[in-house]
Design goal:
The protein has helices spanning about 15-25, 45-55, 70, 75-85, 130-150, 190-195, 225; strands at about 1-5, 35, 65, 90, 95-100, 105-110, 155-160, 200, 210-215, 215-220, 230-240, 240-245. The protein is an alpha/beta fold. The strands form 2 sheets. Strands 4-3-2-1-11-12 form a 6-stranded mixed sheet, covered by helices on one side. It has a 6-stranded mixed sheet with strand order 5-6-7-8-10-9. About 50% of the residues are buried.
Length: about 250
């Protein structure tokens, strides 16, 4: 049994220091690995990242993370990344890493993801160069997911960690007018093609907990959606493949 603690949109800052430190201290004994789905800070200042760094620095379990749009807001995303990497967090940006947990090899493909929308409200690759640059950015994110999943194909458990949503199901509850800014179904294409055991994201604070890409489970683990500091996923299985068991969404 592998226990994964997942959270998105922690929004760490000095104002939330006590809550953040207590949450990470409590979850260490309840899980084997921690996955953070972006928006680690409130406005992307390195000083805010120091709060998260202090929370994870002495943990005995691995921590994987991607950045979110809040972490990029101040234009200091690389500084935010450096702060939390110094504390031992494996930050993924169009990349992948693997580690052994409970006798199984877990591979995590991670990237922020980006916007673009879903059927009925999707941005096209057409028009002004600025709009086409947005489309191209999402293309690079999707390509990184595809490459990463090919690289971790040998792993017993394959996880995709994002900030933006790859499916419309998990943003339901948000105003339809902003769906285009909450993610893109183009992020789901490589996951459907190459396969994964679990997909996690955040960003959509008023979204829904659970969705799917074919038979692959997708969960919005923004703390505003789960109603918890961390959601614990139990993975039960053996080398070759594992099955995810999860409770229903928070009430």
């Amino acid at each position: 049994m592998i226990r994964i603690a997942a959270a998105g949109d922690v929004h760490a800052s000095e104002a939330t220091r006590d809550r953040v430190l207590q949450a990470f201290d409590a979850v260490e004994s309840q899980s084997d690995v921690i996955l953070l789905a972006g928006d680690l800070t409130t406005t992307g200042e390195p000083e805010q990242a120091e709060v998260l760094a202090d929370a994870v620095r002495d943990l005995s379990i691995p921590v994987f993370a991607v950045l979110g749009n809040h972490d990029c807001h101040a234009g200091r995303a690389e500084d935010v990344r450096a702060v939390i990497e110094e504390a031992g967090v494996r930050v993924l940006d169009r990349s992948w890493k693997a580690c052994e947990v409970a006798g199984l090899e877990i591979g995590v493909v991670g990237t922020k993801g980006f916007v673009g929308g879903f059927p009925g409200s999707a941005l096209p690759d057409f028009g002004e160069s600025l709009m086409r640059s947005v489309y191209a950015e999402t293309t690079l994110e999707a390509e990184a997911i595809a490459k990463g999943l090919q690289e971790i194909v040998h792993c017993d458990v394959r996880i995709v960690l994002l900030h933006y949503a790859p499916v419309q199901e998990t943003i339901e509850g948000e105003p339809p007018g902003i769906h285009v800014m909450l993610g893109s179904d183009r992020l789901a294409t490589p996951i459907a093609e190459y396969g994964a055991d679990l997909v996690l994201h955040g960003h959509a604070h008023a979204g829904s907990f659970e969705g799917h890409i074919g038979q692959i489970p997708v969960y919005n683990v923004a703390v505003h959606v789960t109603g918890r500091d961390f959601w614990i996923f139990d993975l039960e299985g053996a080398r070759g493949r594992s099955a995810v068991e999860v409770e229903g969404p928070a009430g």
